[in-house]
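Supplementary notes for students who missed Thursday's class. We covered one full example, reproduced here. Read the sequence, then the structure, then the short commentary at the end.
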Amino acid sequence: MAVHVFAMNDDQIKSASRIWKIDFVHKWHDRRSHCDIDWDNDTLIFANNSSVDNVSPWTWHDHELN
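Structure (token representation):
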């Protein structure tokens, strides 16, 4: 079971991490993030008007950062 957060700024991530052990930080909810999600077991936390139903047409390739 993993915890994913979407569209959170640094302060929101810090606050959420007091309650949850965050495993994935997604800049926004995009189709690429769906590869990381186990839809039966993971917890998804959305912020800043993001939602499970609102999938961005833009993709953030966070896996290319490292």
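Commentary. The chain has a mean pLDDT of 89. DSSP finds one helix and three strands in the chain. If anything here is unclear, bring it to office hours.
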